[in-house]
Design brief:
Strand content: under 5%
Number of strands: 0
Shape: elongated
Order of helices and strands: HHHHHH
Mean pLDDT: 77
Length: 155
């Protein structure tokens, strides 16, 4: 009888193949075994949003989205978008006169002409602030609100 731990011939047991009984490789196991710490799919309730609501907003509505922290390129793109939004807000203020807007006409009818100017400035500022927030937090709803406010102020 053999007493050593040397290789054992198992070809007579497994169709001519030598089988080794060593522990699995840790490197190989590290690439295949995963510890899943995510939320199971059945733990999140399904929310049915009507398709006509999705069609209004141009796609599916995702209320809560988590992102990984942005890298340097994403931060540069965000800063560039905020800079262009500042330029857009300045040009909107300079090139869009308040005198042709409906709120200016209504404020003149009631005798408070300065309210039209304040509402005009408030709409531009609200569009800029919601745009800043939407770009920085990657919130699509705030970006949509910014679009609406800056388009509405130019009409």
């Amino acid at each position: 009888m053999e007493e050593g731990k040397g290789p054992v011939d198992t070809s007579h047991l497994y169709e001519g193949k030598v089988v080794r009984s060593s522990a699995p490789s840790r490197k190989r196991a590290a690439g295949t075994l995963k510890a899943d710490s995510g939320i199971p799919d059945d733990a999140v309730p399904d929310v049915a949003i009507p398709s006509w609501i999705d069609a209004i907003f141009g796609g599916p509505i995702l209320v809560n989205r988590e992102f990984v922290s942005p890298n340097k390129m994403v931060l540069n793109l965000q800063m560039g978008a905020i800079g262009s939004l500042l330029v857009l807000g300045f040009l909107t203020f300079m090139l869009t006169p308040v005198s042709g807007t409906a709120w200016f006409a209504i404020s003149n009818m009631i005798g408070f002409g300065f309210l039209g100017l304040w509402l005009h400035l408030l709409m531009i500022l609200f569009g800029l602030i919601s745009g800043f927030w939407g770009v920085w937090q990657r919130d699509q709803r705030a970006i949509l609100l910014s679009y609406v406010m800056l388009i509405l102020v130019t009409i």
